[in-house]
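Dear support,

I submitted the protein below through the web form. The confirmation email said the job was done, but the results page showed an empty box. After a refresh the structure appeared. I'm attaching both so you can tell me whether what I see now is the final result or a partial one.
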Amino acid sequence: KKKVAPPSGKKNILFIALLLLVTFGIYFQVTSHEFVNYDDDTLITTNRVVVDAGKSWTDCFTWNIFTPHFKPLVLLSWRAEYQAFGEKPGVFLFNNLLLHAFNVLLVFFLSLTLLRKFIPDQKQVISLAAFFVALAFAVHPLHVESVAWAVERKDVLYTFFFLLSLWSYLQYLEKNKYTYLLLCALFYLLVLLSKSMGITLIAVLFLTDYLYGRKNLVGLIKEKIPVIFFFVVGIYLYGLVDYLTGFVSGGAAGSGTNLPETLQVASESSPFLQIVLMAFLKFFLMLVHVLIPLHISVIYEGLEIQKMLGIFFYIIPFVVIGLFYLAYRLSGRHKEILFGLLFFLITFSPAITIGKYEGVGVFVGDRYTYAPMLGLLVAMVVLCFRIQSSFKQLPIVLLSILSIVYIALTIPAIGVWKNAETLWTNAIEKTKCAAPAYNGRGVYYLNKTKENDKALADFDQAILCDSNHVRAVYNRGIILMNKNRNAEALRDYNRAIILNPKYVEAYVNRGNILRDQGQNDAAMMDYNTAIQLSPEFSKSYFNRGSLYLNMKRFDEAIADCDKAISIDRNYAKAYYNKGVALFNLSRKEDACKEFSTSLNLGYQAADKTIKEYCQ
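What the results page shows now:
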């Protein structure tokens, strides 16, 4: 038989250089971007596990444990960056880009092996096909969210270990060395410590067995015992048994006179059926969105999409099932289609279970397609190279055009993530009336640019879009309080607490207004409620301490300031108030030490106090 030469090493080096050049070329702009007020603040810049050097690094392994949000390796990476460089978003985003570049190279090397199963008679084009798979992965517009958003370190990190684990498994299949299977299991553990979506890797390994024609199910299970062990560990660490039990709970389906009415009544009466219908919708929409990546936004309004689809919403499950059936029927000649669809379904499936459909980024999000997209890209590239044409360069031309289109869509999509204003403005333009987008932009104006009037207008608009949007109601209360419109602010805080009886910040701010109005008992009740709801919220203790100062209960004020400081060691105002209480107890020397600490932490009002009373 005629021997086919292996892919040229020099050609691969050229492809690798081109992939890195393109990836860094289009994404380097993220290094000048800011953090955005969508989880970057709560998970990174105000997360004490990340920013507080006094916290133990082991806290990363207990934070959110036994929930699907357990991600210690991500927290460790953020903590290392913050402790080394401080609050510099460019560092965090550059490292996202670096991980994305590594993932692009891993996709290239994985494809060199996988593509042999789809185009075995065209070994001379495998390197070229692998290059186009990796290029599409590098520049696809839906990947922008995972790279240009600091908190989505979760995606690029778990995918890095995911791809390494899958590569190790392919090496095991190719070389039959059990060491590679153990390496696969080790990388799987790192996947599980990065993001819960990665738990699906075990199913991808069985899908790979199908691709390689391995059918001894008992033997396949036995050989994967190390992987299965970590799978069970992942279920335990994520608390998935309780989570899934709650997910599938629901009542009985209803009935009606025709198919649409039956499904409508059933979906309203049975939460589980509604979840199933929405799961099909999410899968279908994101599948189409990967293939046609237009109208990109950080928010997709699930309910509006459902209304827009009309009766087609109830037909989608049959379309999806039909698509898989067609792929199965074609799997004899085109197994890449079934492989791509199953890979996408398996790896995307955790995103289907995410809670409320109308929330920010909760219905669906581009980030959830980061790793799952690989299967579809492989199928798409293989189909292009299978095109029968007298023009031999047609696949290259088609895939080159597709890559250029992707790049043209990706570059402006990256710019959208420049800061919170550009992010939320884009979401406002791409949605009908998204309250979270107006609220997010309002928070940017409130906290970043101090433009209270703009912020108030956005909070008003958010409430017009959704009168029950509790964050917008609360945030509007802050603006009104800043404008000394306390009666209106009080109404908003009352409304926020009605909408969310566990809204800690609303209790604290309402307590502040009541305190300033001399309603000490009512204010004390609000502070106590806030502390009971969240014992680690430092502002509750600080503000209750302020009330104790007003009431001249100085020992209790000191105790609350100490508690606030124990939670947040950099709480400058807490040191100052503690100093005031100490001064009133005739402990001048101790008071002046607290004033000095407060000043050193940036509370400038302490300077005047020190000059007047401590010198």
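Response: this is the final, complete result; the empty box was a page-load delay. The chain has 32 helices and no strands.
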